[in-house]
Design brief:
alpha/beta; globular; 10-stranded mixed beta sheet; 16 strands
C-alpha cells in the first residue's frame, strides 16, 4: 500500500522537487525534477492532495501532475483520513503552526528548512511529533547528494586525519531567480530572515553533517545591499566546533554566478567540494601515496591527489524515498526534528551575534 501524501504549498519547490521526487521512477513526472533535486523518483508514494490559498495555482499544478484533490485551507487537508503524511512547503513563519497541527492530526511530517522561526517553535514541533507518535523530518536536501555522502565517507575513514577547519559558501543572485512569483523571501514577517536563513542553513547543516560535531561558539556579521528588501542578503559567520576545529560560513543573495562549495582542511590532507563541474570533489594528501593506509572510495589517485568516483544515486535513495521508507517502516528519518533544530540554533546564534556584536555560546538559552 502506498504512503498517501498531502502537500501544503504549491510553489517552485513543490513543482521542481517534491512532486517529481514522489513520482514513480522513470515516469514523465519524475523527469521534471530540477537537476539539484533529481533523486530519481520514489516507489510506494502517492500524492493525493495539494493545498494553496491561491487555489488556481494548486489546481494548475494538480492538473499537471494528476493529483486528484486540491484545498484552499490547509486545515481541511489535515482533516482528511486518507492522508498518511504531510509535506510543508510554505513561508518560514508558517512551518511551526502547520507542523504541530499535522502532528496532532496524526500525520507524519516532512517540513522545509529552516524548520521554524525560533528555538521555542522548533521545540514545540519536536514535542508535538513525539507526543503524537508521528515522524518528523526536516528537508536538508544537500545531505542526500552523492558527492556529499562520498565526502562524509572519506572523512569517517580518517584519510585526512583530524579536521582543523572548514569553509562553506552558498551564493546566488537571490530568490527571484529561483521563483520570481514568490515575494515572501524578502519579508521579515513571512521569511523571518534572509540569505543566511534561506540558503546559508543548507551549508551550515552540511558542515555539521560532514564534520559530525556540534558547534559551540558563533560570531557573525550580516549586511543588506538591496534596499528594497526587509532582511539580510549577505552574511558571514565564524564557527568553533566542539573539537576546537573552526569554520567560516558565507551566504549571499547578490552573487553571480552561483556558488555552492565546501573546503575541509585536515592534518594530512584536504577535501574540496564544488570546486569545478568537471571535478565536483577531489582530495589532496600531504603524504606520498605509498605511505598511506587508507580506506577510500574508488577513483583516480596519483601524486597525492584523489578524484573519487561519485555514485549516481544517494545511498538512502534521496530525501523523498527516505521519508517514504521511514514512514513504511515507522523508523525515525534523518535529518530528524532534533537535528533540524540543531542547525537552526546555530543560524539563530549567528543573528544574535550580528545584532549584539558579540560571540554567542551554544546552546542558546531557552
Amino acid at each position: 500500500m502506498s504512503v498517501r501524501i498531502g502537500i501544503i504549498g504549491s510553489g517552485a519547490i513543490t513543482r521542481r522537487a517534491y512532486l517529481p521526487g514522489f513520482s514513480r521512477p522513470g515516469s514523465p513526472n519524475a523527469a521534471k525534477a530540477h537537476p539539484y533535486f533529481d533523486f530519481g523518483g520514489c516507489e510506494g508514494a502517492e500524492v493525493v492532495a495539494l493545498c494553496n490559498p491561491r487555489i488556481e495555482r494548486a489546481r494548475n499544478l494538480a492538473e499537471e501532475f494528476q493529483i486528484p484533490t486540491v484545498f484552499e485551507d490547509w486545515r481541511e487537508l489535515l482533516s482528511r483520513d486518507d492522508i498518511d503524511a504531510v509535506c510543508i512547503n510554505t513561508p518560514n513563519a508558517m512551518h511551526a503552526e502547520m507542523t504541530i497541527a499535522a502532528a496532532e492530526a496524526g500525520k507524519h511530517v516532512m517540513v522545509e528548512k529552516p524548520m521554524a522561526a525560533s528555538i521555542q517553535e522548533a521545540d514545540a514541533m519536536v514535542k508535538a511529533a513525539r507526543e503524537n507518535r508521528v515522524l518528523l523530518m526536516v528537508d536538508q536536501t544537500q545531505r542526500f547528494w552523492p558527492v556529499h555522502e562520498t565526502a562524509q565517507a572519506i572523512l569517517r575513514s580518517g584519510a585526512i586525519g583530524r579536521v582543523i577547519s572548514v569553509r562553506g559558501k552558498m551564493a546566488h543572485g537571490g530568490p527571484q531567480f529561483w521563483n520570481p512569483q514568490s515575494t515572501w523571501f524578502a519579508s521579515s514577517v513571512e521569511g523571518v530572515h534572509g540569505a543566511l536563513f534561506d540558503i546559508g542553513i543548507h551549508t551550515l547543516d552540511l558542515m555539521r553533517f560532514l564534520i559530525g560535531e556540534p558547534v559551540k561558539e558563533v560570531a557573525a556579521f550580516t549586511t543588506k545591499f538591496r534596499g528594497e528588501i526587509e532582511v539580510e542578503d549577505n552574511a558571514v559567520a565564524i564557527l568553533r566546533f566542539a573539537s576546537g576545529a573552526t569554520g567560516v560560513l558565507e551566504a549571499s543573495w547578490t552573487c553571480n554566478p552561483r556558488e555552492s562549495s565546501i573546503y575541509i582542511y585536515g592534518e594530512f590532507g584536504n577535501i574540496r567540494i564544488g570546486h569545478s563541474a568537471d571535478e565536483p570533489i577531489f582530495v589532496e594528501y600531504a603524504l606520498p601515496d605509498s605511505a598511506q593506509n587508507r580506506e577510500i572510495p574508488a577513483g583516480r589517485l596519483s601524486y597525492g591527489r584523489h578524484v573519487p568516483e561519485i555514485p549516481k544515486r544517494s545511498r538512502l535513495g534521496g530525501p523523498f524515498r527516505h521519508f517514504v521508507e521511514s514512514v513504511e517502516k515507522n523508523v525515525q528519518p534523518t535529518p530528524s526534528g532534533e537535528d533540524g533544530r540543531s542547525s537552526l540554533e546555530v543560524v539563530l546564534a549567528a543573528f544574535a551575534s550580528a545584532r549584539d556584536r558579540s560571540v554567542v555560546e551554544l546552546p542558546l538559552e531557552r
